[in-house]
Amino acid sequence: MDYRTALLTFGVVFLLVGLIGQVKLKELEVGTSNSIARAILGVLGLILILLSLYRYTFNERIEETVSKKETSANGNVINGSLIKGIYVGDFTTDSNTTGVSIRTELKQVEDRMVGKYSYGMKEGTIDGNLKNNVILFEWYEPGGFGHGKLYLKENGKRFSGTWGYKESSDNGGAWNGHLE
After folding, report:
1. What structural domains does the chain harbor?
2. Rg (CA), the chain
3. For the whole prediction, is pTM greater than 0.70?
């Protein structure tokens, strides 16, 4: 079960408990008669459903963007090919300076870079611009967002740079990767 499906499933269960007070799934029975708890569960369920739908439409929008014509107007082609691939690497944070493993998928669409990343149980998206082999981007994941700057190296086979929270592109830590 992927992240989106889990959000939707829990959202529906919580919403049903909030509306009717009790739900029985196979051998698991969930419910409450407390009206405040039901209201909270109903609202939480609605939020989870909306979040799962938002993630679906956001990811579909990225896929639609990626499927458009793949050309570059300002010389961001490295050795005759556009930048596209899955990079493995790590990123650092204030609390983890040794690095956290991350998988980053990037694809050039004209002068834009779009992609997604995952580490541990978290996933996020990247949307940015490519100029002179530098990617300036915004990242988003549930519970956080920010900016970053990645420098492409070795004909696009590697990148290194920084990421940050909210409006900063460097207060989070370092981000490095190489083609898988």
Report:
1. 3-66 (no CATH), 84-179 (2.40.128)
2. 20
3. no
